[in-house]
C-alpha cells in the first residue's frame, strides 16, 4: 500500500516557477515508477512527466520539455516536479501517481495509487 500526498501548488505569474512535491508512505515506494499528471477544467487527465523507479529513465510530454524536470529521492520517499517558465496553459490540478511498471507510464488506468491533487494556477 502506498499513500501519496502532493504539495507545492499555488498561484504564480506567467514566467514564474513552482516545485511540486509528492510524499509517499510505504516501504515499497522505491519499487514504483512515478508519474505526474494534470487535469484542466473540461479536459482529460494527461501525463506530464514520468520517472522510473531508479530515476534512470524519464519521460516528458512535448509541451513541458525544457521547462519541467521530474526527479525523485527514494531515501526521502519523495518525487518532485520542478516547473519553470510557467504558462497560463499549465493551469490545472496536478496529481502524482505510482505505477508498477515504467513502460506503462502513459496509461493512467495502469497506475495503482494516486494523490489527492494540488492546484496550479498561472496568471497571464
Characterize the overall form: globular
> Whole-Å distance between the termini?
40 Å
Structural class: mainly beta
* Helix and strand run: EEEEEEEEEEE
Residues in helices, as a percent range: under 10%
How much is the average pLDDT? 95
Rg over CA atoms, rounded to whole Å, is 13 Å
Low-confidence stretches: none
Largest sheet: 7 strands, mixed
How much of the polypeptide forms β-strand, as a percent range?
A: over 45%
Number of strands: 11
The helix count comes to 0
Describe it for me?
There is one protein chain. With 124 residues, the protein is an all-beta fold. The chain has no helices and 11 strands. The strands form 2 sheets. Strands 2, 4, 5, 6, 9, 10 and 11 form a 7-stranded mixed sheet that branches. The protein has a 4-stranded antiparallel sheet with strand order 1-3-8-7, with no helix packed on it. The protein is globular, with a radius of gyration of 13 Å. The N and C termini lie far apart (40 Å). The relative contact order is 0.31.
Secondary structure blueprint with pairings:
Blueprint: E1 3-7, E2 10-13, E3 18-25, E4 33-39, E5 46-51, E6 58-60, E7 68-73, E8 78-83, E9 92-99, E10 111-114, E11 118-123
Parallel strand pairs: 2-11
Antiparallel strand pairs: 1-3, 3-8, 4-5, 4-9, 5-6, 7-8, 9-10, 9-11
In short:
The chain is mostly beta strands and 124 residues long.
Question: Which short descriptors sum up this protein?
Answer:
single chain; 124 residues; mainly beta; 7-stranded mixed sheet; 4-stranded antiparallel sheet; 11 strands; 0% helix; globular
Amino acid at each position: 500500500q502506498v499513500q501519496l500526498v502532493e504539495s507545492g501548488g499555488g498561484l504564480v505569474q506567467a514566467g514564474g516557477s513552482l516545485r511540486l512535491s509528492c510524499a509517499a508512505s510505504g516501504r515499497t515506494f522505491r519499487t514504483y515508477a512515478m508519474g505526474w499528471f494534470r487535469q484542466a477544467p473540461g479536459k482529460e487527465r494527461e501525463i506530464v512527466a514520468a520517472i522510473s523507479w531508479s530515476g534512470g529513465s524519464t519521460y516528458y510530454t512535448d509541451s513541458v520539455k525544457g521547462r519541467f524536470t521530474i526527479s525523485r529521492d527514494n531515501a526521502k520517499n519523495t518525487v518532485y516536479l520542478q516547473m519553470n517558465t510557467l504558462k497560463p496553459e499549465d493551469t490545472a490540478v496536478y496529481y502524482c501517481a505510482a505505477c508498477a511498471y515504467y513502460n506503462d507510464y502513459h496509461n493512467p488506468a495502469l497506475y495503482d495509487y494516486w494523490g489527492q491533487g494540488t492546484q496550479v494556477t498561472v496568471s497571464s
